[in-house]
Specification:
With 122 residues, the protein is mostly helical. The protein contains six helices and two strands. The longest helix has 15 residues, at 11-25. It is elongated.
């Protein structure tokens, strides 16, 4: 599926594609390397912008490589989801109510998993 050069893609879709490329690589990548992995016709400046935004969000680490940076994920996909859940929880001042409503909406299977995890501890 080829996309027209000026067709707009949701930022979340591009961020997910960049993260997938970084996770698959298993090693820090420069914007040019990420661009090559994506093979989606994205400009290097677009890839660099996405990487910078993910870095600013605390999702990526970066290290100096030449005149630019190479990026790597701070978390695996599951860890990233957990960070997002914590971030959402931190946005509300009434944590108890948020957690109560979260638990109330869990499926029976998810509730059992959560209970087991809480009983086992870290």
């Amino acid at each position: 599926m080829s996309l027209e050069k000026d067709e707009r893609r949701p930022a979340g879709e591009l961020e997910a594609a960049v993260m997938a490329a970084l996770w698959a690589a298993g090693t820090p990548l420069t914007p040019a390397q990420v661009q090559a992995e994506l093979a989606r016709g994205l400009a290097r400046t677009t890839v660099t912008t996405i990487l910078s935004r993910l870095y600013e969000k605390g999702t990526l680490q970066r290290q100096r490589q030449g005149r630019g940076y190479a990026y790597r994920p701070i978390q695996d996909p599951h860890g990233l989801t957990a960070l997002r859940m914590h971030s959402e929880l931190d946005r509300d001042s009434d944590r108890e109510t948020v957690l109560a409503r979260f638990v109330a909406q869990l499926s029976a299977g998810d509730e059992q998993v959560l209970r087991r995890l809480l009983e086992e501890g870290p």
